[in-house]
Each structure stands twice: as C-alpha cells, then as structure tokens.
C-alpha cells in the first residue's frame, strides 16, 4: 500500500508534477483579486474599470457585446498586462476564473432597452442566470446593478428599499424594470438556495463623461443640445422629477457595497431632486443661455417622481454623494465639447 494514500487505491507518484510556467511568478500574475466586469465598455462600467485598475493588486476582465458600449471607453487599458477585454454576450455561458463579478451588462437608456425588448429581458434574466452560475461554480462574490426603475412610478416618496414598487408588468418599459426585478429575485434565490455571496445596488439616474452623445437620456440630451445650439427638449409635463448622481460618487458606492458585508438591496443615488424643467434651465444657464427650451411629447409610463432614500447607504456603507449637479454638469460639458468638437468661447 502506498504510504501517502488514504484509501489504498492510489499509486505513489513516480514523477513530480511539472513546474508552473515561469510566467506564473511575473508581475502579471501577482494580483490578489481577479475581477470580472460585465458591460465594462459602457458608461458606468468603464469608470468602474478605471477605479479598479488603479489598484495594482487587481486584474480586470471585461466582457461586453458593444451594443451601447465602446472599446473607446477602455482604450487606455487595452494592452495593459492586468487588463483583458473580451467580446461576449452575457446571454451565452461564460467560462473564466475570477474572484468577484460586477454584473452591469444591460442597455440602460430607455431608447436602447426598448429597441429590442425581448433581448433586454434575455439579457436581464438569462444573462444574470449565467453570471450567477459562474459565481456558484467559482464561489465568487457577485454584484448586480439594479435600478430605481424597480420602484416603477412610485407612490412612496422618497423611495426606501422596503418599498415594493408600482410597476406596469405589460408596458413598454417592463422589459427593463420587470427584467431587473427578476434579476434581483434570481440573486436572492441563488443566495438562499446556494449560499452565493451577493450584492444588489439600486442605482438612481447617474450622469457624467463618456455617456453616449446620442444616448437619449435626459442629461446627455440637454448637454448635447445646448452645445449644438438646438432647443432643449423637455418631455411634458416637465414637472416630473429625477435625482442625478455624478458617476464618480456612484462608482465609489458600488465598490463600498462589493467590499462591505451587506447584501442589499441598497439605493445608490443623489437625493438632490429636480424637475425636468429645472434641469433644462440649469443646463441653459451653465452651458448656453441662448438656447430655447421646448416642450415635447412624453413616452408611456414615464415615472412622475424619483428620489432615493439613502439612509441605508449612509449607515451600512458610510457612503453619500459629494458632487452637486451644478459641479458635475461642467465636468460632463468638458467631455462633450471635446467629443463634439465645440470650443468654449
Ligand atoms: N446610468 C444610470 O443612470 C443607471 C441607473 C440605474 C441602473 N443602471 C444600470 O447600470 C448598468 C450600466 O448602465 P450604463 O448607464 O453604464 O449603461 P450603458 O448602456 O452605457 O452600459 C451597458 C453596457 O452593457 C453592454 N451590454 C448590453 N447588453 C449586453 C449583453 N447582452 N452582453 C454583454 N454586454 C451587454 C453594453 O454594450 C454596454 O457597454 C446597467 O445594468 C444599468 O441597468 C444605470
Ligand atoms: O435611474 C434609473 O433607475 C433609470 O433611469 C433612467 O430612466 P429615466 O429616468 O426614464 O431616464 P431618462 O431617459 O434620462 O429620462 C428622465 C426624465 O427626463 C425626461 N426627458 C428625457 C429626455 C429628453 O430629451 N427630455 C426629457 O425631458 C423624461 O421624460 C424623464 O421624465 C435610465 O435610463 C435607466 O437606465 C435607469 O435604470
């Protein structure tokens, strides 16, 4: 019987195992944490990647199908030894070895998520199932970027995480808001059934540099319109409200949530609340006082009010946003000027 065999079935190895590749000890492999970011070529994802890459102990893998994201957002990392970019659609299974998963992949602007609603549902449901399956196989911690849209057209204001929402299940926005609600359910079922370490962030309207110029969301629309000298299109009635969070604050919140001890769901957003008419007037005043503000028709099921209750984020993550709308808009203006080629007079 072999001396080192516990059950007697094993042969004593006659040959020692091969040495690991010498590359195993190079700088490339010395990271402590390998992190997957799905949707990392998008707006929030690329800012998250920037922040994760600042830490030399992190190795970052991005997967994206480039539906609304772009390699351009990640160009400073392409070729970096701790960075890898892969064209991949999350509705297909993925085999990679990672310690953490930030799962962002999903079109976020209403014009894009409504463009192919069935695909949006597949991305939210099958995409999240695939990422949870990966997390289960690896024992990895997974964070989902859910949304304030799970509250629908809210009847409670501001919205705490305990509010179950007011969502139209058959409307044109349902592919996104019901899709995210199922994604949250899947996260908690995998947690309860399989013990997966989960984190769920409910993000409220976030803005900043790198949003697509023709993204269709309100802040990017107004800034692009102001710079092009076109009327700012306020969708009626203009009294509907949103609360806008600058992207650096949001990324800080996501990382705190991932690194902390709480599953969530946790609201991440800036409680400063504005009507769309107020937003248009602010953009006009800061960027181009000559443009006109024009009232246009709205889209179905547009939520009338939205403001996060961030008590939980403050208490559990020690997080609150720092950048006020009036300070964030000029930072975004600078980026849009560069990309549109419009100089400041
Ligand atoms: N920006 C916000 O205000 C906001 C608010 C709430 C929630 N969120 C959530 O945050 C995440 C990122 O939003 P964003 O504003 O950066 O949007 P974005 O559209 O800029 O980024 C989404 C990224 O996901 C990719 N993607 C889409 N479908 C995919 C698929 N099937 N497979 C692989 N990649 C896919 C896109 O190409 C893009 O790079 C989304 O999950 C969104 O629902 C954003
Ligand atoms: O933060 C959230 O939870 C969600 O918010 C947004 O959805 P929405 O608030 O409808 O975002 P916008 O399309 O930017 O619209 C905001 C408001 O601006 C108005 N709007 C939009 C565009 C425009 O040109 N003018 C205008 O007045 C809309 O009617 C709406 O009332 C995002 O698009 C979602 O991805 C995200 O999940």
Q: What structural class do the secondary elements suggest?
A: alpha/beta
The largest sheet, given as strand count, sense and whether it forms a barrel, is:
7 strands, parallel
**Which shape, going by the Cα principal axes?**
globular
In round numbers, the mean pLDDT is 92
Catalogue the unreliable spans.
1-10
Give the second-level CATH assignment, the architecture of the domain at 28-210 and 246-270 and 306-321.
3-Layer(aba) Sandwich
Helix content: 25-40%
Hetero ligands: nicotinamide-adenine-dinucleotide, uridine-5'-diphosphate-glucuronic acid
- SSE string, helices as H and strands as E: EHEEEHHEHEEHEEEHEEHEHH
If helices are DSSP runs of H or I spanning 4 or more residues, what is the number of helices? 9
- Proportion of residues in β-strands: 15-25%
Taking strands numbered 1, 2, ... along the chain, how are they ordered across the largest sheet?
3-2-1-4-5-6-11
Distance between the termini: 87 Å
In the CATH scheme, the class of the domain at 28-210 and 246-270 and 306-321 would be: Alpha Beta
The CATH superfamily of the domain at 28-210 and 246-270 and 306-321 turns out to be NAD(P)-binding Rossmann-like Domain
CATH topology of the domain at 28-210 and 246-270 and 306-321: Rossmann fold
Count of strand segments: 13
Return Rg in Å.
Answer: 22 Å
């Amino acid at each position: 019987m072999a001396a080192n065999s516990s059950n007697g079935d094993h042969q004593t190895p006659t040959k020692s195992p091969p040495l690991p590749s010498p590359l195993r000890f190079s700088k490339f492999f010395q990271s402590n944490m390998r992190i997957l970011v799905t949707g990392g070529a998008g707006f929030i994802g690329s800012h998250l990647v920037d922040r994760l890459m600042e830490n030399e102990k992190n190795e970052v893998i991005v997967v994206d199908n480039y539906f609304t994201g772009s390699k351009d957002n990640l160009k400073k990392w392409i070729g970096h030894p701790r960075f890898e970019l892969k064209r991949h659609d999350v509705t297909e299974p993925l085999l990679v070895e990672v310690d953490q998963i930030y799962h962002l992949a999903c079109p976020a602007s209403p014009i894009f998520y409504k463009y192919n609603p069935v695909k949006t549902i597949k991305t939210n449901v099958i995409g999240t199932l695939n990422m949870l399956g990966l997390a289960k196989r690896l024992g990895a911690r997974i964070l989902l970027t859910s949304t304030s849209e799970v509250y629908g057209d809210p009847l409670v204001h501001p919205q705490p995480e305990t509010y179950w929402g007011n969502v139209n299940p058959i409307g044109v926005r349902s592919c996104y808001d019901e899709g995210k609600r199922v994604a949250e359910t899947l996260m908690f079922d995998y947690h309860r059934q399989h013990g997966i370490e989960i984190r769920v962030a409910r993000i409220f309207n976030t803005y900043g540099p790198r949003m697509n110029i023709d993204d269709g969301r309100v802040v990017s629309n107004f800034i692009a319109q102001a710079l092009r000298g076109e009327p700012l299109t306020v969708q009626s009635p203009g009294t509907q409200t949103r609360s806008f969070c600058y992207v650096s604050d949001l990324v800080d919140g996501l990382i705190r949530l991932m690194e902390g001890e709480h599953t969530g769901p946790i609201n991440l957003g800036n409680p400063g609340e504005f009507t769309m008419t107020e937003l248009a007037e602010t953009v006009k005043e800061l960027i181009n006082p000559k443009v006109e503000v024009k009232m246009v028709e709205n889209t179905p099921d547009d939520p009338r009010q939205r403001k996060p209750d961030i008590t939980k984020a403050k208490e559990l993550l020690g997080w609150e946003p720092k950048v006020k709308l009036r300070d964030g808009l000029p930072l975004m203006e600078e980026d849009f000027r560069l990309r549109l080629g419009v100089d400041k007079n």
